[in-house]
Design goal:
InterPro entries: Enolase-like_C_sf (IPR036849), Enolase-like_N (IPR029017), Enolase_C-like (IPR029065), Mandelate_racemase_C (IPR013342), Mandelate_racemase_N_dom (IPR013341), MenC (IPR047585), OSBS/NAAAR (IPR010197). This protein has 368 residues and is of the alpha/beta class. It is 35% helix and 21% strand. Helix 5 links the parallel strand 5 and strand 6. Bound molecules: 2-succinylbenzoate (OSB) and magnesium ion.
């Protein structure tokens, strides 16, 4: 296929509720939709994930714009690409900037699946027809409020509950949650807010039968996580530390992690995500799909990826209505009894809803 034209739409949407982490509160989500056209007029869609501020990784909405417009699009426009696996090789001379790369790469995957008349799930080697989903809950104002929110999600059918922890908001909260819900699949995400000096505190978490603790230590660490894992019964799941299949191999070999959260954006696209999945499957390390508070296009890519066989743990891809008054795809993503059906239509299997996209559109750039 030849990449003939790329439309880059800049959107800003407001989430129904602010999402609070150890870094602060987020309610505005600004992102780009990449629509990539081939020589026959087929088009594929991708959504960028970086936030306005660089607290999760170093990328932001503005660095993404700079990288996509000035470096990545010139590398693929008017180029012949026979398979989307080639895109990560074409982008390899550009260091990091994984979220910018992923936004373009996933659109080319969707385009490829559509051209070849298959679903994105099929094109990736997906096997499951429905995926199990959990929910990630931001920090709440009070524990009472948290208990109420958790109870509602359990009633809605979500398969596991993930809560954010940070120093000063951890053991007591987890203890109350466990008392109230003795048998729910529960996990905690620290987003790198502890150090090895907090060992005694982290060790206490072993009393609450958590499925795992996500990224307790520094965002770029695998050495201290290995030391910690040796002394914890609770499995560690790395998120921020894993940017590539090489990182995954090193972390598994060192014993830094027993589970990996794969985010397409963090690892630079679907080809790298699949490589990490395949390696983890070979090593007996289960994976799940993380989220970036995406709108529908990003969510659709997550669903296709999650249909691969080693996604054996519920991920963070909740339904559209959890985040948005109205999502940018049709139909919206719905969770029934804790499952999302993997769409069978070509490509991502959801149609961009141009009326809704228009409503949140700030500006558009066309490259041809
Ligand atoms: O619901 C989602 O999309 C993911 C929620 C989440 O946990 C999260 C949200 C923003 C940044 C980082 C993370 C994370 O997984 O660490
Ligand atoms: Mg995380």
């Amino acid at each position: 296929m030849i990449i003939k034209k790329i439309t880059m739409r800049h959107l800003k949407m407001t989430m129904k509720n602010p999402f609070v982490t150890s870094f602060g509160s987020m309610q505005e989500k600004e992102f780009f939709l990449l629509e990539v056209f081939d020589e026959n007029g087929n088009s594929g869609w991708g959504e960028s994930a970086a936030f306005q501020a660089p607290w999760y990784t170093e990328e932001t909405v503005q660095t993404t714009l700079h990288m996509i417009r000035d470096f990545l699009i010139p590398l693929v426009l008017n180029k012949e690409i026979s398979h989307p696996d080639e895109v990560s090789e074409i982008f390899a001379p550009i260091r990091k900037n994984n979220m910018a790369k992923a936004a373009v790469e996933v659109a080319i995957w969707d385009l490829y699946a559509k051209r070849t008349n298959q679903s994105l799930s099929q094109a990736l080697g997906g096997v499951t027809e429905k995926i199990e989903v959990g929910i990630s809950i931001g920090i709440q104002t009070t524990t009472e409020k948290l208990l109420e929110v958790v109870s509602n999600y359990i009633q809605e059918g979500y398969k596991r509950i993930k809560v954010k922890i940070k120093p000063g908001y951890d053991i007591e909260m987890i203890q109350k949650l466990r008392e109230a819900f003795p048998s729910i699949p529960l996990m905690a995400d620290a987003n790198s807010s502890y150090t090895l000096e907090d060992f005694e505190l982290l060790k206490k978490l072993d009393d609450y039968e958590l499925m795992m603790i996500e990224q307790p230590l520094a965002n770029d660490d695998i050495v201290d996580h290995a030391k910690l894992q040796k002394q914890l019964n609770t499995p560690i799941c790395l998120d921020e530390s894993i940017l590539s299949v090489a990182d995954a191999r090193n972390a598994i070999e060192l014993g830094s992690t027993k589970v990996i959260n794969i985010k397409i954006a963090r690892v630079g696209g679907l080809t790298e995500a699949k490589k990490i999945h395949d390696l983890c499957m070979e090593k007996g390390v289960p994976v799940w799909c993380g989220g970036m508070l995406e709108a529908g296009i990003g969510r659709a890519h997550n669903i296709a990826l999650t249909s691969l066989p080693n996604f054996t743990l519920p991920g963070d891809t909740a339904g559209s209505s959890h985040y948005w008054e109205e999502d940018i795809i049709s139909p919206e993503i719905v969770v029934v009894n804790g499952y999302i059906e993997v769409p069978k239509g070509n490509g991502i299997g959801y149609e961009p809803n141009m009326k809704v996209i228009q409503r949140y559109l700030l500006d558009t750039i066309v490259f041809e």
